[in-house]
Amino acid sequence: MRLKLLGSACFGSFFSLVRFHLFKMATTAASSLQMATARPCMSSSRRAFVSSAAMLNGNFKLASWTKLSSACHIASAQPFHRSFTSSSLKMDKFVTKAMAGASENKPASGLPIDLKGKRAFIAGVADDNGYGWAIAKSLAAAGAEILVGTWVPALNIFESSLRRGKFDESRVLPDGSLMEITKIYPLDAVFDNPEDVPEDIKTNKRYAGSSKWTVQEAAESVKSDFGSIDILVHSLANGPEVVKPLLETSRKGYLAALSASSYSYVSLLKHFLPIINPGGSSISLTYIASERIIPGYGGGMSSAKAALESDTRVLAFEAGRRKGIRVNAISAGPLRSRAAKAIGFIDMMIDYSSANAPLQKELSAEEVGNTAAFLASPLASAITGGVIYVDNGLNAMGVGVDSPIFEKLDIPKAQH
Ligand code: NAD
C-alpha cells in the first residue's frame, strides 16, 4: 500500500516536471506578434477584458463567453513589485498570453471556477510546501491576482528563493503558465499595530530592513497599493509549546498559540474587512484536533483550532451582516509542510490517515487549494460559517480500523 502511494506521488511530480520542461521549451518559441500584445502594466480585470475583446474582433456581445471559458486559460501576467522579473519570467508571460489566445474562443463545458478580476491576499506563505502556497496556486489557476503576506523572519529567504527560480517548478499552473505573485507583504500577525510591538522585536535583526508589517499596516499598504481585495486567506499558525501535552503547557505558551493561530485571524478580518469587496469571502485553515483528541498536538494548539472554528461562525455572522462577506474554515488532513514537520509526528499522521480514512490515498495540498478556490467563488455563494473537511474523510471515522482489535473483522482495503 505504502509503495503504491509513493508510486503515485512520484508519478505526480514526474508529470509536473515534464509539463514544466515542455513549458520552458515553449517559451523559446513565442512569436514577436504575441510579444507585442502582452501588456503587463494592466490590471488583471482589464487584461481579461482586453484579451477577450481582441479575440472576438470587437464583438462585445459575445464577451460573456469569456466568463464561461475555463479560468485556466487566463494570463495572470504581472511583474513582481519587488522586481522578480527575470528575463525568463518575462518570456513566460508571452507564452501564457499566446495560450490564452489559442483557446479562449471556445465555451468551456461543465461548471468552471472563475475568479478572473478578483484579488486575493493570502497570509502565511513562506515556501512552496504548505497549504498557503497551494491555495495561492488554485486561486491563480482560476484567474485571481495573488498577493501574499509572509512572516517577517521568513521574508528574505522566501523572496530570494522566488527570485532565484527555486520555486519555478512548483509555480506551474494547469495551463502551463507560472503563478505570478503580484506583491509580497511582510507580516507578523501577532501584532495588530506599531504600538503593540515590544522593544526586543523592534530591535531584532530578523525584523531589520522590513517595515509596516503589523496587521493594521499590512491592510493599509494593500489598500494604498490596490484599493481592495476579494478573497482573504489565513493560512498560518504557531504554537511555541506545541510538543508539550496540555497539562504541561504554560500560560504564556497557551496564550501565544491562541494569539498566533486564532486571534491573528480575528485581527486580519477586522483590518481587511473594510477593503473586501461585496461578495468577497474569507477562509482559514483548521485541524480535526479542535474537536477530537490528537495526542501530540499540544501546547494549546488544539484549543487554538477550537477557537478558530468557533470564531468562524461568529465572524460569518458579523461579516455577513455588515458586508455580505462569507467566512469559512477548511479542516485539512495532514500535510508534510514546514510547520507540520516542526511538530514532529506528521509522517505518522499521514500513515494513520492512509490506514484509516475512507479514501486510502495521500492528501495533496492541491485538493485543499481547489476547495479554497471553490469556497471563494460564486459557486459557494450560500456557504458561510462552515467548517469544510478536506481530509479523505478521516473525520467521519469513529474508530481506527487498523487496530489489532479488529483483526478478525473483514475490513475492506483500497482496491486500486
Ligand atoms: P506552513 O509552514 O506552510 O504555514 C504556516 C505559515 O505560518 C508559515 O508560512 C509561517 O511563516 C507563518 N507564520 C507563523 N507565525 C506567523 C506570524 N506570527 N505572522 C505571520 N505568519 C506566520 O504550514 P501549513 O501546515 O501549511 O500551515 C498552514 C495552516 O494550515 C495552519 O493554520 C495549519 O495549522 C493548518 N493545517 C495544517 C495541517 C498540516 O498537516 N500541515 C493540517 C491541518 C491544518
TrEMBL record:
The keyword Secreted does not apply. Residues 1-20 form the signal peptide. CDD domains: ENR_SDR (cd05372). Catalyzes the NAD-dependent reduction of a carbon-carbon double bond in an enoyl moiety that is covalently linked to an acyl carrier protein (ACP). Catalyzes the last reduction step in the de novo synthesis cycle of fatty acids. Involved in the elongation cycle of fatty acids which are used in lipid metabolism. Required for normal plant growth. Homotetramer. It catalyses: a 2,3-saturated acyl-[ACP] + NAD(+) = a (2E)-enoyl-[ACP] + NADH + H(+). Its EC number is 1.3.1.9. Pathway: Lipid metabolism; fatty acid biosynthesis. GO terms for biological process: fatty acid biosynthetic process. Gene3D superfamilies: Enoyl acyl carrier protein reductase (1.10.8.400), NAD(P)-binding Rossmann-like Domain (3.40.50.720). It comes from Prunus persica. Pfam families: adh_short_C2. It is an enzyme of class 1 (oxidoreductase). This is Enoyl-[acyl-carrier-protein] reductase [NADH], chloroplastic. GO terms for molecular function: enoyl-[acyl-carrier-protein] reductase (NADH) activity. GO terms for cellular component: chloroplast. Belongs to the short-chain dehydrogenases/reductases (SDR) family. FabI subfamily. SUPFAM superfamilies: NAD(P)-binding Rossmann-fold domains (SSF51735). It is found in: Plastid, Chloroplast. Keywords: Chloroplast, Fatty acid biosynthesis, Fatty acid metabolism, Lipid biosynthesis, Lipid metabolism, Oxidoreductase, Plastid, Signal, Transit peptide.
